[in-house]
Amino acid sequence: MCEETKADHTAFWNLVDRLKDEGILKGRMGGWYELTPIGVIHAEQNDLAPVELRGENDEVRTKILVRCAQTYHEQGSRYHTHKQVIEAETDLTDPLLTANLLLLDGVGYIESSGNMGWKLTHLGLAAVEQFEQGKSVVDWFESIIDETPQKRGRELQKIIAAAVEKHSSGWTQEEGARTSNEEMDAVFSRAREYYLLESKWEKDPIEAAVVRELYGKLGNRIDVRGILASMSGFSAGAVKQAEDYIGQKVVLFFGPDDITSLIYNKASLEELLDAKYRELIIRRTISFN
After folding, report:
1. What's this model's pTM, rounded to 2 decimal places?
2. May I ask the CATH class of domain 51-128?
């Protein structure tokens, strides 16, 4: 691989050693290396795996954990769930099933009890409980998809605020904040860091006028940034308007994939902000997905 990529020899092996130390790579005989379960999760979290494959594997892991949790609650922590039971009740098949059983074992969510049986660990139980807590936000979101733009727009602000509260550690939210002459969809804060949220779910991409309206609210306040979230995307004019404001006030865009990542707990608010600031600072561009 070092020769194929024409990488600097010293830098390449320094990186390999670092990845081994972090538990991402594992050395094998003959100079081979394999990605560890932690490495797989790391690759997925850093968008190095195809989106479709990540989604498919997330679904498989969730079904495994939920079924093992059922045994945990009904029979106790000492009882295992046989692989054949998981296959029969979830319609999961190999190679995906075995691959994800081994991955969940590798990260400590389940453990083998021998003879193809698997038990949920306390770490796995915590993951299932977190998933169950997040389901209400997901169900809420999916229940409004076919509503009118006006109704689902109002609900979207509440759903985003609820998702931040559930999934983004360290952040607080105040949904539907008002002054005597202004209303904000939500305010997100952490220490002295503040963001005003404006959320839309319309038929067409958001135009520049909405950006200007949010900019006006930011202009009345010190040291505050804006987040414009739109399930219908943004027009070229809206993007240009936000880029024109970069030197004055920061208005970040959250597109449909960003919003659903937050709601489905695929990314935290912090992770989304980091990615957008990186593009803003390095390339001076307003990014959204």
Report:
1. 0.57
2. mainly alpha
